[in-house]
Request: fold
Amino acid sequence: MAELQMANGEVAEAQQTFEQLLRLAMKSGDALKQREYLWRSAEAFDRLGEFTDAEEQLKVLLEMDLTKEQYLETLCHLADIQVKVEEQRMEQTVHQTIAAQGKNPGNLIRSVTSIRLGVDAERADEQDHEEGLADTLKEIVKRTVPSPVYAKYHEQHLQRFLSKLGAYTPRSALRQDKRAEALKECVKMINAPGGGCCTVFPYEAAIWLLEEQEELVGTNKRSINRSSTASCTNLHRLVSKGSRSNLLVRGPSKVNLLARPSFSGTLSTSRRSLDELPSSNNLQSMQDLQSTGRQHSPSPQQLNWYRGDSIRGVDREFIYKVMREHEEDAAAVRQVQAAVATKEGRALSKAEEFGRRLAHQFPWSPAASVAVGLALRRKYHGHSGAPSLAGHRKQIIKNLKHGIERGANSAAGWKALAELQYQNRQFQEAYDTAVSGLEWSVKRRRSGHETLTNFALALRLVVAQCLRRLERLEEAEYNFQVLAGWTTEGDSAFNELSGSSPLSIRQQALRGIAKVALERGDKQAARHQYERILGKALIGQGPPAAHWAHSEYAWLLFEDGNLELAKQQLETALRSAQRESMLITDSELAEVHYKLGRICWTMGGNQLTDPNQARAHFEAATQHDSEVQALAFQWLGRWYEEIDQDYQQAQHCYERAVALDDDDIIASEALEKLKAQGKITLSPAHSTRLADRIAAKKASAKHQAKNSTAISRIRYEGALERALS
Reply:
């Protein structure tokens, strides 16, 4: 009768029937029947929503004589019930807090999310001193490993340690102690004996905690100007000077954002299902579990202690599909592992170690894609003296973007993606990524986590740099000035985690102010900023000057006719770029070589005629895709034409310059001149195209000169005078 009542949905009647059966079993002294009816009665209470009564029934069942398997299954059922009890209590507390807040309108109004997070943190901390869910989870964790059957209980146990962080003041010593405890639990779960961990959650949590630790440690490396009236908690307010064009209220970004970070919220916070998480090594064991754990109604004669709903089956076809879709990611993982295996003289950091294991065990997860991208960036960064290549950056961007768009929670990933897109001259994409990353950090902070000030500073720097490249000079200058006022000398944090070289926010801000001044034609103001950077580095009041400071200052000296000092500065820039832990991109290295070639050409004499001087620098500048590549081919063609008198090589260089840059009038005119002199031959169609291009560019040269950027002015140098004459 009880079974029929349950099947017909008459749960209340079924529960009463099970109660009567339980009393009869107790009278007869049948322990087997007592265990069965206690279990079924608890299930009925569960379906009725009377979770406290269900909890009491299961606690009575635990005190009976059970086998190890029965005891463990009862513990799991009890944990499920206690989670629901805890959720009810939390909801009641939240509603009470909201009601009390409404009765005191003079107090600070907190959002529902903030109240919920605070209650979650307080309850997680209080339960250490109470008998309840925390003790049940501890008992389950002690008896099991995080296999597919028990992974959710290990996750809930770890989540309690993460939730406790919200009960303590950010950046306090007590919160730091709790963070260390949570990280210890992550390591325990990852290194579980007898089969390992089959869920991505502890890896993500460990990397998350290490990023918070990097923020706190990084504060000692680079200090914030606390005397500034602008609060560092408002770094996300990127408001243009003199307007209210807040960048955070624009339309949806191209980069997807998470609604909230993974490790915030109540106990009911959704987890990724285990269907998405297992490694290929565990597929067979999961199939066995699936076959033994199908849901069915237990008969009165035999109690099914391994409930079907406690074993989450795995769709093998889904796993194979995911693995096929991410073959490229798996290949990248193997490449990283091979690079790490052959890398000498450097130990893996904790974050790198967790990321490496995550990418190996869960290559399809979003966090693994980010871990692979960061590992590749660190790998290429590890080659001291070698420039960062655009092809490598493109591969890393693909991995990082793939993980970020699918919801990976990684501050280092956001930072690295924005920086690499900027280095590859994808300025609009870098701008969108940086702003979206700032929005993500705001949501993260509102969820009760540590404020990642260093991370926000780095992204705001990318925003300012992109604004300058997008010719929004007033907004760029305002952001650079704010960054220069907020920070003092020193390197920012998150460089090691994101795989970048040491970065001084203040130096970069001053550099940005100088570049904006150059865009406006104010060389004196630009020179003043570069001399501030180099002067402080020289007297030891700031970090060492980077290669770009010497290179860009040298070009100002060159334009003033100070050739010797300009060459010394550029040679210093090359040495700085080759210094250990100093990163230079291929385009930046090409620009340094181009400038050295120009100086050698202007100095004349042996500097010009020696193939190892001017020609060697121009050839080096043509090797990489950069903003001066076409210009380097033009000057290399002039060298072959005027110095070596190799007109075929000169023709090749001029044609490469024209192919790379339609605006290169000098190269086009040089080809026409060589053809007129009979030194080279051009097809009639080619000659006609060159003549048409020269005429069109002469007509628009004045307008182009007015709107050109700083690097465009280098490109048009000399060409405009000839075009306008």
Remarks:
- The mean pLDDT is 75.
- The beta strands are 222-224, 487-490.
